[in-house]
Amino acid sequence: MDYRMHEGTYERFLVMVKWGTISVAILMVILYFLIIA
């Protein structure tokens, strides 16, 4: 098993999870204001 490749894959996974969570949070705020306003 290539440990360096494993670390790189895990880093990309963490970045995608972070930005995915931020995107969903922003989307929820936008939808909240579209529905309530």
UniProtKB/TrEMBL annotation:
Residue stretches making up the Cytochrome c oxidase subunit IV bacterial aa3 type domain: 1-34
Superkingdom, taxonomy of origin: Bacteria
UniProt keyword list: Membrane, Transmembrane, Transmembrane helix
Protein name in UniProt: Aa3-type cytochrome c oxidase subunit IV
Species lineage: Bacteria, Pseudomonadati, Pseudomonadota, Alphaproteobacteria, Hyphomicrobiales
Species assigned in the record: Arsenicitalea aurantiaca
Pfam families named among the record's database cross-references: COX4_pro_2
Signal peptide: none
Transmembrane segments: 12-35
